[in-house]
């Protein structure tokens, strides 16, 4: 089982001190009846930034100590070296595929192998404007609660999005819902044929994926002020650099920031 293997690999990597968690202190902030989680990052963030400046592609080749398993024919599961959860998994394409190009059925088939567990949230950042820090195709997985779930499922999100719900998720159903969302939100070029072999570049967006629902969000920008937002923020979980950003976010408003990062 994927998560069982991941826990074992994470334990070994932690004991070898090669995992560098970036989130430490956390708080709960209530806003409009919703409790948001805000975590403050530690000094490992600087190590992540330095690695990003010196390493072109951490997934090709990947660090063998981060390897969890092969997932299907085209993907591998790796630990995130700089996790925000315990563990924090990445489903990466074996060969380079652009993060900003349209996902395919193989991506969903691999990703969903990690989603069909209790309390797992999958998230995807399609481009730098949507919070992606790497250009190599990767989908992410963590175990967490979703503070915004009630608002998501009740249709009360104050920004543009597409929501799909499932009794039992499968890759084909999720993939075709995804294609519908990309079309309806105008995230793919008009008159695009899905049968061509060339990769289809998309406008920026995020996906949140669980066993029972999928949320697609068109993005306008990856930040407001000095606070950056990726897909995980749209679950109601935030990461900030320091106490000053923590206090600023509370004053500014979590929902306000999320809304201003979404394409109108």
UniProtKB/TrEMBL annotation:
PANTHER family annotated for this entry?
A: AP-4-A PHOSPHORYLASE II, PUTATIVE (AFU_ORTHOLOGUE AFUA_5G14690)-RELATED
Positions of the Ap4A phosphorylase 1/2 N-terminal domain: 2-146
Name of the protein in its database record: Phosphorylase
Q: Which domain of life is it from?
A: Bacteria
Residues at the catalytic site = 138 (nucleophile)
Sequence ranges assigned to domain ATP adenylyltransferase C-terminal in this UniProt record: 156-263
Swiss-Prot/TrEMBL GO biological process terms:
nucleotide metabolic process
A GO molecular-function annotation = ATP binding
Query: Where does the signal sequence lie?
Result: none
Cite the InterPro entries for this sequence. Answer: Ap4A_phos1/2, Ap4A_phos1/2-like, Ap4A_phos1/2_N, ATP_adenylylTrfase_C, HIT-like_sf
